[in-house]
Amino acid sequence: MYKQKFKESQQIHKDIYLYICRYIKEHRYAPSYKEIADGVGVSNATVLRHMDMLRTDGLIETDHPKTPRAFRLTGYEFVTRRKNHDKQRKVR
Predict the structure, then answer these.
(1) Residues paired with 60 in a beta bridge
(2) How far is CA 23 from CA 27, 76, 85, in A?
(3) What pLDDT sits at residue 81?
(4) Distance CA 3, CA 19 (A)
(5) What DSSP element (H or E) covers 48?
(6) Cβ-based neighbours of 40, under 8 Å, separated by 6 or more
(7) pTM given for the model
């Protein structure tokens, strides 16, 4: 029984991390804890517990623990592209 609970916890941990990755890639900012809970199908308390574990594991960073949307993915840099970045400027 313990082994099954452990595997479930690992899967939730992974699901939360992957949800955060997808959300930031799509929206360009971090999701709230409620959005994570709704997106993964777990309780807010479960999200808080796993967010602490993700910080401990070094997968996310924050300067303001327990503050919604105040975290970032460690080692990731999401870059936005300008629409006209391929066009060359005319030189006169």
Answers:
(1) 73
(2) 6, 13, 25
(3) 61
(4) 24
(5) helix 44-56
(6) 12, 15, 16, 19, 47
(7) 0.75
